[in-house]
Design brief:
Layout (H helix, E strand, L loop, with lengths): L3 E12 L2 E12 L3 E5 L6 H8 L7 E6 L2 E3 L4 H7 L1 E4 L11 H5 L15 H14 L15 H13 L5 E5 L7 H16 L3 E5 L6 H4 L2 E6 L2 E7 L5 H9 L18 E10 L3 E9 L3 E5 L6 H9 L6 E6 L2 E3 L4 H6 L2 E4 L3 H5 L6 H6 L15 H15 L15 H14 L4 E5 L7 H16 L3 E5 L3 H7 L2 E6 L2 E7 L5 H8 L1 H6 L1
Parallel strand pairs: 3-8, 3-9, 6-7, 7-8, 13-18, 13-19, 16-17, 17-18
Antiparallel strand pairs: 1-2, 1-4, 4-5, 9-10, 11-12, 11-14, 14-15, 19-20
Helix pairs in contact: 13-14, 14-15
């Protein structure tokens, strides 16, 4: 690692009603990967948006290569050589990769107002070759995978001759293979002297990629440590200010024999092929498998979001017809999507409205007028039961942390009196403290007799929470393991079984 390239000291930032940053410090050196960690709401992204010129601090100062600088806009940051790759990628899907990289800086042809796409593609290809990326600069970004789009964002940042690259949750939606490719590029940048700031909730990644770790909590700087000298437990303790203990589920010695949900011969295209399984009351059934195995597609078909080609669904022994999500809710089935912001919540609405949304008709009187006293009481009861951290019932959901938003979705389905719940990647994008609370919530729901299907790509999560694991591969169920049988090795064997057989 080289000299200090960025120094931030005493950074304070106030928003209406909340102090997001309070006397924060951060330092980045040439040729290092510096991880920035903390719970949702700790101030990580806000601090980096100050460095990237998106927010202006109320107090404090920034040094760049030892000189004081005022970064009052993203353009000013880019001029210095500071670029940010946001968690929500900022690309235009209808344009090509090359056009996205050089938007606003296009090569012009000899004819006025005509772009020289050939020159543009050559410039983009040169950037890709520098990163050893096999990407066609002519392909439209909308046709690329999320991982490839992320590489386009990195290429765009480097096209500004970036010496500092900020990456906000870059691995949240990537597969293990895609993460390894991303880390290969990051290591290459580090070797080239670029300073990389890596914001992540996935603490297991720290030792793979980072040199140092800075911890933030409640908008304040806590400490900076060498990654190879800091145990994960110590980093977690600094993040949450308490010791986290994620208990394994209490698996009953004699499980409830009542089958809440039974699926027989479910089929939908290549992603769902002859799927049959049962879930009992009070049971958490984990659905494991590689990305693209068909787990989400099974849940969506059962919930009525996608129409199956064939198959039967039984709820408490009674065959039901589910042609839409409305039918599923009527039969006591709820689905918490992996993309809660897009499919699970009305982000512009308040907490109270979101909680009663799935059962809104129940709160109408004979004249069709909403009984606000009942909606308020119902929402307040669930906020207390689930320990939802919100300033008020009127708080807009978009302003809540990821873990709190997830609890609001759970409250919505509990209000709808659902007895069968599908949790699709329930802890994706939330911090370690909120993750522990979601685990506790799942256990509590199972203890109340709810039948739960949990789809997760994190094997430790599957092992920790599941009473039983169903493994999928290429649209089919390839194996089933009891709590006593399940190990990561066995799950991965089943997850790759059909591929191995084909190979």
């Amino acid at each position: 690692m080289g000299d200090v390239i960025v120094g931030m000291a005493g950074i304070t930032k106030q928003f209406p009603g909340v102090r997001a940053l309070d006397d924060c410090h951060f330092e980045l050196r040439h040729g290092e990967v510096h991880a920035l960690v903390g719970e949702n709401g700790a101030g990580k992204s806000t601090l980096m948006k100050v460095l990237a010129g998106i927010y202006r601090p109320d107090a404090g100062h920034i040094l760049f290569k030892g000189q004081p600088v005022e970064i009052d806009s993203p353009r000013a940051a880019q001029h210095l050589g500071i670029s940010i790759v946001h968690q929500e990628l900022n690309l235009m899907p209808h344009l090509t990769a090359a056009q996205n990289i050089f938007i606003g800086r296009e090569s012009r042809a000899a004819v006025p107002f005509v772009l020289d796409d050939g020159a543009l593609n050559t410039r983009a290809r040169n950037v890709f070759e520098t990163l050893h990326l096999r990407l066609d600069p002519r392909v439209k970004v909308g046709n690329l995978t999320v991982a490839q789009q992320q590489m386009v964002e990195i290429a765009k940042a480097l096209s500004f001759n970036a010496e500092v690259l900020i990456m906000d949750e870059p691995t949240a939606t990537l597969t293990d293979a895609e993460i390894e490719e991303l880390f290969r590029v990051v290591r290459q940048l580090r070797e080239g002297g670029v300073g990389v700031i890596h914001i992540s909730h996935r603490l297991e990644e720290l030792r793979q990629i980072s040199d140092r770790v800075t911890v933030m909590r409640d908008g304040r700087y806590i400490d900076t440590v060498q990654t190879n000298e800091a145990p994960i437990e110590g980093i977690i303790s600094m993040m949450v200010g308490r010791t986290i203990f994620e208990a394994a589920p209490e698996i009953p010695e004699h499980p409830d024999p009542t089958v809440a949900l039974e699926v027989r011969g479910l089929n939908r295209g290549r992603m769902v092929r002859d799927v049959s399984f049962k879930v009992r009351r009070g049971e958490i059934v984990g659905f494991a498998g590689l990305v693209g195995a068909g787990r989400t597609e099974v849940a969506r078909a059962i919930f009525g979001a996608d129409r199956p080609e064939s198959g039967e669904v039984y709820v408490h022994g009674r065959r039901v017809h589910i042609g839409s999500p409305k039918d599923a809710v009527r039969n006591g089935i709820g689905y918490l999507s992996e993309d809660r912001k897009r499919y699970g919540l009305a982000l512009s609405m308040d907490v109270e409205t979101n909680i009663v949304l799935a059962a809104f008709r129940r709160f109408l009187n004979a004249l069709g007028v909403v009984n606000t006293a009942r909606t308020r009481a119902t929402a307040a009861a669930h906020i207390k039961k689930l320990d939802i951290k919100t300033p008020s019932l009127r708080q807009r959901v978009r302003n809540l942390s990821g873990g709190t938003q997830q609890k609001v979705v759970v409250a919505k389905w509990l209000t709808a009196a659902t007895e069968i719940l599908f949790f699709d990647e329930p802890t994706r994008g939330i911090d370690v403290g909120a993750k522990s609370e979601i685990y506790r919530l799942l256990n509590d729901l199972a203890a109340e007799g709810k039948a739960i299907v949990m789809i997760s790509s994190e094997l430790p999560e599957i092992l920790r929470l599941s009473h039983r694991v169903i493994v999928m591969c290429e649209g089919r169920i390839s194996g089933e393991l009891s709590a006593a049988e399940m190990t990561q090795e066995k799950i991965m064997t089943y997850a790759t079984q059909r591929m191995a057989a084909v190979a």
